[in-house]
Structures are given as C-alpha cells and as structure tokens.
C-alpha cells in the first residue's frame, strides 16, 4: 500500500529509509517548538497555546505536503516572519496579535489564489535575484539581533543606540556556550545539533539554579486561547496592506526557494530543471498558512532543514508523514518547552542567521545598481528593526538607482508597483 501510494520503488527508497529520513528532518527542526512560542509570546499570545498551535500547524502542513504533493518536505512556522509578527506588527505598529493573525490569514488566502491561478512564476521571476538574496540575508541579520538581545549580549544604549551587555551575567555566558556547541555539532554533521544546544543550555541553567524545571511529559495544554481568535475584519479595516504584502512576498520566496533547493539536492527535479507537482506543493504550503493562522501561530512555510531528511535518503511524502507524526508526539512535551529560557533559544536564532546570510556571497557586488539596493535591504531590517521596512528600502532604492543610472528598462513592472506602494506608505502613514 505504501509503495503504491508514495511510489517508493520508483524513487529508489523503502519504508525503513523514509522513516529514518523523517526522524533526521524532525531532529534538525524540532527547535521550532521551543523557539516559536518564545518569540510569539513577546506579542502577548499565551505561550502554552502557541506551543500547541506550532505543533499542530507543523503536523498539518507537513502531512498535506506528504499526502497530497508526495514530497519529503516538512513545514512549520517560519523563522523571521514570527519575529516580524511579534516585534514589528504587534510591538512596533501597535496592532493586537489577533489582527496580526488576521493579516497572516489574508496573506495565506492570497498565496492560495496565486497557486491556483499559476501566477507564482510571474511574480517570482519579476523580483530581481539580488533582492531575493538580500531579503533572506536581511531576515537572518534580524534574527541574529533578536538572538543577541534575548541573550543579553547586545543591549540598548542611549549614547550609541546599541552596546555590549554585561558578559559577566549567566545569560550571555550560557548563550555563548550554546552557540559554540551548536556550531561545533553542525560542523561535525551531528543530527539535531540545534535541539541539542537548546537542551544543553536549558539543562545547565536548571542545574545552576537560574531557571525552573517544569517536567518533561504532560497532556497538551489548551488551544482555546488562540483557536479561531484571528481578527480578519480588523486586519482589513486597519489597512494592513503593507503587512500582508510583506507576509506574502517573504512566504512566496521562502517556500519556492526551499522547495526548489531541497528537491534539487535530492534529484527530484525533472529533465528541464523544474519541479513536478509544484502547484500541489505550494497549495500545501498556503493551506498550512491559513490553518496555522486559525490555530494561532504566524506563517507556516517549507523548512530548509528538510535537506537533512533527503540527505538520509528520503525521496517521497512518506518522509513528511513521519515528520508530521513526530510533531503530534511533540505535543506531550509542553512542560519541557516551558522550562526553556529565552537565552537558551537565542543561540538557535543566531545559528539560523548564519545559514540565511550566506546568500550575500551570491550578490553581484561589482554592479552597484544591484549590490547597493541589496545591502540597503539586508541591513535595513535589523537597523530599522522591521522586515517590512528593510524590504521597502530594497525595492525603492532598486527602482530609484536603476532610473537615475539610465537603466530603468531593467526594472520589472512588479518592482515598480511594489516600490510605489512602499513610497505611498511612507508618505501617507
């Protein structure tokens, strides 16, 4: 039955290989069940409910990807967009988390429409490659700043805006140790390096008496505080168009880039270098966004950590189904998640930033009309403490520089439209 449904023999794999691949993927991305509640709690969402929503959204999205699209791709609430949700939309703009969830829901509906009407390729191809790389790298830098802040390594300073924290305190010391451990484990290609680092810092913190151990297993907490609490009408009335646009653009690039990248490494692209059943995969992704917003978490997306599973031999949706079942099992680890302090998840944020910033190396630095907007986009996110503003800097400067350099014809129509939207936003709001 499994071979017939997932076409295991056709892909040169077996149930045993797929199960081991699913376990590998889960171990590399299980950190999200600790990190996502920690970040979204900063917006006021009840942490226990977000833990449940994170596990359920990841399980649901990954199961759809496996059963409907038959790809070994796992999904979970995305890093970067959860920080944008908590620190920019709620913390910076002052909207409630219910309205922010409404904006996530709307962006997911837009993603579904784009997938159904096959507009994805036009939108993705219209955005310059340099800005795509800069958006990913900028989100990474933004995550690094949040991680350094949560660890107490970087603090506010009225004279210099930012300054070095007191490294004699336990939080920065444990966080630095955790970061060194994670990087060393990942460099040695040890599976689950990130989750091992988080748990090691948590264990050290508890042993030294800096945090409280709340247990390991229990029945899942209630989802009631977040289930169906999204405010779609509020998101529409508040005029959150730029917020929805930011969610949509980042989700689109993130999902497409991850799908192509992981499947390319796994040899799942066709002879033309295209991904069969791409629309099914994108529909799985967008459905997970909508469902996640209804459950009470920020945007769900495909995870690059899925490459760990394909490296272990995973080639079909059975790998994804195994990951989904493991996320369901993770629901019973709520006390352990509640025992993890913010400075224990900070090293994970900084390490993910390292991975996301690698795209800067691919930018054409010799072409100033490409490199300058890319840099403004990437550094704008952490310095403005806003992913949306960083993207705005990138699009507006790209159009403006190309125009003044006499190369306006190189600017796609979509870039002009997005740049004008951001200009109107800055001028009117």
Q: Which range does the strand content fall in? A: under 5%
Shape designation: globular
Number of continuous helical runs: 20
Q: How many beta-strand runs? A: 4
The oligomeric state of the chains shown is: single chain
- Biggest sheet strand line-up: 1-4
N- and C-termini, Cα separation: 57 Å
- The rounded Rg comes to 21 Å
- Give the SSE order as H and E letters: HHHHEHHHHEEHHHHHEHHHHHHH
The average pLDDT is 88
Biggest pleated sheet: 2 strands, antiparallel
Residue windows where pLDDT falls under 50 for at least 5 positions: none
Class derived from helix and strand content: mainly alpha
Binned, the helix content reads 55-70%
Give a verbal description of the structure.
With 429 residues, the chain is mainly alpha-helical. It is 66% helix and 3% strand. The protein is built from 20 helices and four strands. The chain has helices at residues 2-6, 15-29, 32-40, 47-69, 81-90, 97-116, 120-126, 129-151, 170-187, 193-207, 232-237, 241-265, 278-295, 306-311, 317-329, 334-338, 342-356, 368-384, 387-404, 413-428; strands at 75-77, 154-157, 161-164, 300-302. Strands 1-4 form a two-stranded antiparallel sheet. A two-stranded antiparallel ribbon has the order 2-3. Helix 2 (15-29) packs across helix 15 and helix 9 crosses helix 17 (342-356). The termini are far apart. The model has no long low-confidence stretch (mean pLDDT 88).
């Amino acid at each position: 039955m499994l071979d017939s449904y997932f076409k295991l023999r056709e892909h040169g794999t077996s149930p045993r290989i797929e199960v081991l691949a699913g376990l590998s993927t889960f171990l590399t991305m299980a950190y999200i069940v600790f990190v996502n509640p920690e970040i979204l709690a900063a917006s006021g969402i009840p942490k226990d409910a977000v833990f449940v929503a994170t596990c359920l959204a990841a399980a649901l999205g990954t199961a759809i990807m496996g059963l409907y699209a038959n790809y070994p791709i796992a999904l979970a609430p995305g890093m970067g967009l959860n920080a944008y949700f908590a620190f920019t939309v709620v913390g910076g703009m002052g909207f409630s988390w219910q309205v922010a969830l409404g904006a996530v829901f709307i962006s997911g509906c837009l993603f579904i429409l784009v997938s159904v009407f096959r507009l994805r390729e036009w939108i993705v191809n219209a955005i310059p490659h340099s800005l795509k790389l800069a958006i990913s790298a900028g989100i990474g830098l933004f995550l690094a700043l949040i991680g350094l802040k949560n660890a107490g390594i970087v603090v506010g300073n009225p004279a210099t805006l930012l300054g070095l924290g007191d490294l004699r305190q336990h939080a920065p010391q444990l966080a630095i140790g955790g970061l060194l451990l994670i990087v060393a484990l990942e460099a040695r290609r040890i599976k689950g390096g990130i989750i091992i680092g988080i748990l090691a810092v948590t264990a050290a913190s508890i042993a030294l008496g800096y945090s409280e151990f709340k247990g390991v297993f229990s029945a899942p907490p209630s989802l009631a505080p977040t289930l169906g609490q999204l405010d779609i009408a509020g998101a529409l009335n508040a005029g959150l168009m730029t917020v929805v646009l930011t969610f949509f653009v980042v989700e689109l690039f993130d999902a497409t880039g991850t799908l192509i990248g992981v499947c390319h490494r796994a040899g799942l692209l066709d002879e033309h270098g295209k991904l069969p059943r791409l629309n099914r995969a994108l529909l799985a992704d967008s459905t997970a966004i909508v469902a996640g917003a209804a459950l009470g978490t920020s945007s769900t997306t495909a995870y690059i950590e899925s490459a760990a599973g394909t490296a272990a031999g995973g080639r079909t949706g059975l790998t994804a189904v195994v990951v989904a079942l493991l996320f369901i099992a993770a629901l019973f680890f709520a006390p352990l998640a509640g025992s993890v302090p913010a400075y224990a998840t900070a090293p994970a944020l900084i390490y993910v930033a390292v991975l996301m910033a690698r795209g800067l190396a691919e930018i054409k630095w010799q072409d100033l009309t490409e490199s300058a907007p890319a840099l403004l986009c990437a550094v704008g996110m952490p310095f403005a403490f806003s992913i949306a503003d960083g993207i705005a800097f990138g699009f507006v400067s790209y159009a403006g520089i190309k125009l003044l350099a006499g190369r306006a014809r190189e600017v796609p129509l979509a870039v002009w439209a997005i740049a004008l939207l951001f200009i109107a936003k800055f001028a009117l709001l």
